[in-house]
Amino acid sequence: MKWPSWLTPKSRRRPAAEPSLTACPTCGREMDRIEKSTMTGYDMRTYRCEHCGKEHVINFGPALWKILSDAREAEEKQEKPNG
Description:
1 helix; alpha+beta; three-stranded antiparallel beta sheet
């Protein structure tokens, strides 16, 4: 059966676009990254929306160096001989 051009079955529809983490929560436009800091152990990035003029700090989770450091410490504790 051929489907009419105006009807698209659910199985052929494209999924909705994922929300962007860099979209401004106020106006929804893309923001420009101003600063990136990982000194606290978290990947903190500061973005500025040119349209609104507001700055937003977004936490992207633990920094890579922190994850690797914690994994190395855990591995070193397991390797130490008892005694």
